[in-house]
Design brief:
Blueprint: H1 9-76, H2 81-106, H3 113-119
Helix pairs in contact: 1-2
């Protein structure tokens, strides 16, 4: 049986040594690429933040112009200025209350409840007190324990 080119232990050792010598260069190239991409990502993130701030300022300005126009329409319809401002105040306060209520309902999700339960060795002994998280409960069926809950 003839020996192939890869059967020689010396050539295998030389290949391994050559690969070992090239490893720092391969790693440094990848670290350099990561560094350059992180710099680009940081610059892009800064631009995104600045553009979001500009968009927020323009959005707030448009919102104020809209409400100014509504006040002008209410005044033109014969409503006194305090009445028009009270209507707008009540509308905005109601909208803010709905937004705060929705934010408070979403806050428990920041704790990653399903992931925490999945990573725990044993289930938590305390019962759930928040009814909005009822859909995140573990299934009683042991066969479905490893399956994600259908939404």
């Amino acid at each position: 049986m003839a020996a192939g080119p890869g059967d020689d232990p010396d050539s295998l050792l030389q290949t391994f040594v050559s690969l070992w010598r090239e490893l720092p260069g391969l790693l440094s190239d990848r670290v350099e690429l990561l560094s350059l991409e992180l710099q680009r990502a940081g610059a892009a993130l800064m631009q995104i933040v600045v553009l979001l701030v500009v968009a927020a300022i323009l959005g707030v300005t448009a919102w104020l112009v809209l409400w100014g126009g509504i006040v002008a329409l209410l005044l033109h319809a014969g409503l006194p200025l305090p009445g028009a401002l009270l209507i707008l105040l009540l509308f905005n306060a109601g909208a803010a209350w709905l937004v705060v209520r929705r934010v408070r309902a979403l806050l428990p999700r920041l704790a990653l409840p399903a992931t925490r339960r999945h990573l725990m060795l044993s289930p938590a002994p305390e019962p759930r007190s928040n009814p909005t998280d009822a859909r995140d409960e573990r299934p009683d069926d042991p066969a479905a324990a490893g399956q994600p809950a259908a939404r």
